[in-house]
Amino acid sequence: QPKDAAKPKLVVGSDAAFAPFEFVENGKPTGFDVDLITALCEEAGYELDFRNMNFDGLIPALQTGQIDAAVSGMSINEERKQVVNFTDPYYKSGLIVAVQAKNNDIKGFDDLKGKKIAVQSGTTGAKMAEKVTTKDKIVYFSNSDQVLLDLKNGSVDAVINDYPVLKYFMDKVAKNDVKLVGEKLTSEDYGIAVPKNKTEVLEKLNAALKKIKENGKYAEIYKKWFNEEP
Ligand code: GLN
Questions:
Q1: Is the CB of residue 207 less than 8 Å from the CB of residue 41?
Q2: End-to-end distance of the chain based on CA atoms, in angstroms?
Q3: Structural domain range at position 105
């Protein structure tokens, strides 16, 4: 029988501007999350239909059933759990502050009061910024690449973003222009978000995640992107 004939489609939304988790290279989505969801679909017997969209549009798209899942470095938290379900955690992340390398007065989160901070709309980083300064000082972007570039070129004083994403940006793009300051502000687990009513999708993704953690595929993908054992 033909191999792919009867595979059900899984429509997966992602904001592919969040390297190394999802980004576009040579016109194609790539990254840890992309490899992960590809492996999960293979394991669960789905045909992957990957859709690139803004991060703050993912939850609404799940709620209206436009997408079956969202994989986008999305942190599992109580607020989101009210409206979507999450798979088991697949990556441990957390927020951190970054500033220009030549900035010597911001040494951590508490020094951000009154400073101009760039964040991505709808993220945990945006929420954190709103805790330390007033909204008129916060610059909201729909795209995380722009957040990082604004810091590099000095249009803002600081950003609050996910540690592994800032780390990757510094290694690949900003080199010595940007530095991290202070301790990690949070510990956050990434999960794949699924509409509340799609319990079969949730179960299949969880079973597939368990399987690829057992058979070494998860470790292989992890090593490829982070150069270390999970
Ligand atoms: N992990 C953060 C969140 O869930 C940021 C995700 C992102 O920008 N793609 O809000």
A1: no
A2: 37
A3: 95-181
Pocket test for ligand 1, best of 71, 124, 160, 190 (most atoms within 8 A of CB): 124
Contact residues of ligand 1, CB 6 A cut-off: 15, 18, 55, 72-75, 120, 123-124, 144, 162, 188
Q: Is the ipTM of this complex over 0.85?
A: yes
| pLDDT tens, residue by residue, 85-112 | 999 999 999 999 999 999 999 999 999 9
In this structure, are residues 157 and 119 in contact, taking their beta carbons and an 8 Å threshold? no
Does 44 share its domain with 14? yes
Torsion angles phi and psi, residue 84, rounded to 5: -140, 165
pLDDT tens digit sequence for 188-204: 999 999 999 999 999 99
> Across the chain, which distance is largest between two alpha carbons, in Å?
66
Do 104 and 215 belong to one domain?
A: no
Closest C-alpha to ligand 1, atom 5: 123
120 CA to centre of ligand 1 in angstroms = 8
- CA angle centred on 38, ends 33 and 14, rounded to 5°: 45
